[in-house]
DNA sequence: AACTGATAGTCAAATCATTTAGCTAAAAGG
DNA sequence: CCTTTTAGCTAAATGATTTGACTATCAGTT
């Protein structure tokens, strides 16, 4: 059995759906938000294998691309792993040429992990169409609609942050 | 160094931000969407450890809770792992009492993995406040605003699906 | 300048998670 | 029946992460 088939066109055998899912009723928008979450995960898996790295290493790459050079400890903090793990992640990324280790200019203990331009470009090639495609959607809405969408998302983020403490 | 600190109140040393992040300009909403994605991941990690399971096993639980009893192969398909991995996931979930293995009523090869009511309740206790908190946000918008939000999310999902082929 | 405590990065060994490959039993379709 | 497919499992191999060192450096005290 190989992993990663995304179908799930399961018959589900509606007859057997005794003790089925508990019915939590939420609105369309809430369901769609959840769906986008799932799709993101699938998308990132796809890009990861396109760049020949595992999900975790790609996650590190995303941070490096979004924020520029980071130290191994910063990477560790952002990914929620130990610094030992970060060392190994940087080892793997270095091995495939996605990053280089540069000496930290002022702290001689430190290391700066710098994404290579070629890899940034490669990653961008996969990710930009999505980012831009999503951003362009906003053009089809009126100013007030756009404002509502932004406010909604800001509040969603806020609810998440609340629940995170 | 322990994992999972969520702060990242890094000084970032604005001076050193030479070769900084490439500036891809997108609108507020797009950034917020990305932020919600990150927060979701943090939230799920938190709930996972509250339920004493790893992220993957919690992912399986989410599917079981959302869809009701599933076979190990269905779990494997949904998580994108091998059926061997699914066996082990179900082993671990069984060990901590989150699921039971029941014989499939009609297929004697098959197994139904059933989430235990207590664990469903426990998981719901963590997840429902978030789900409901997010869904309630919609009440503060007008009908047309709500429609815009829903349409936006539907289209976002669509763009993701496009990029997934 | 010399001490102390914290921080940065790494390594080796142990632990945990997943895949690969192979196996048995049962179902499904000629 | 007979063949092929499907479901689930196991054991061994591989991968990934943590734990617990250890060294070098930094930053603040005195």
UniProtKB/TrEMBL annotation, chains A, B:
Domain (HTH marR-type) ranges: 29-158
Domain of life the protein comes from: Bacteria
Gene Ontology annotations of biological process type: response to stress
GO molecular function, one term: DNA-binding transcription factor activity
Segments crossing the lipid bilayer: none
Keyword annotations: DNA-binding
Cross-referenced PROSITE patterns: HTH_MARR_2
Pfam families linked: MarR_2
Name of the molecule in the record: DNA-binding MarR family transcriptional regulator
């Amino acid at each position: 059995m190989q992993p990663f088939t995304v179908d799930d066109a399961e018959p589900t055998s509606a007859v057997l759906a005794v003790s089925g899912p508990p019915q939590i009723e939420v609105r369309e928008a809430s369901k769609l938000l959840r769906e986008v979450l799932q799709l993101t995960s699938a998308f990132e898996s796809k890009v990861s294998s396109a760049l020949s790295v595992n999900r975790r290493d790609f996650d590190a790459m995303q941070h490096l691309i979004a924020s520029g050079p980071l130290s191994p400890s910063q990477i560790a903090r952002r990914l929620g792993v130990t610094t030992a793990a970060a060392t190994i992640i940087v080892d793997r990324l270095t091995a495939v040429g996605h990053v280089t280790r540069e000496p930290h200019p002022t702290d001689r203990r430190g290391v700066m992990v710098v994404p290579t331009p070629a890899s940034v470009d490669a990653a961008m090639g996969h990710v930009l169409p999505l980012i831009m495609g999503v951003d362009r959607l906003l053009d089809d809405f009126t100013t007030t609609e756009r404002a509502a969408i932004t406010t909604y998302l800001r509040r969603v983020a806020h609810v998440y942050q609340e629940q995170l403490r």
